[in-house]
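Re: weekly structure request thread

Next one in the queue (90 aa):
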Amino acid sequence: LQLKNTLAEHFRNEERYLSVINYPKTDLEEHVDGHLDVLFAFDHEYSRWKDTAGDRYEGRLLNLCTWAIGELLASDMKVKTFLEMRKASR
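Done, posted below.
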């Protein structure tokens, strides 16, 4: 599925970037775990959706996307705060 592949590629690029900027190890592990959670949830819900007849499952996929966006934004805001604090300390 193209969306999952795009997400996985984005996550790999972001994880490399976090390593380059020396994002704290514990925070990086938590961030990567969040990526894995999103990919797992997507796989799980997508497999359930494709095996379900009709449109009755689309609401769950929409909820999954809404949840994933919220999780990703919250994690990315932590990275933003880290970069701002690092910049202020220079």
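The mean pLDDT is 88. The CA atoms of residues 27 and 67 lie 20 Å apart.
Next request, please.
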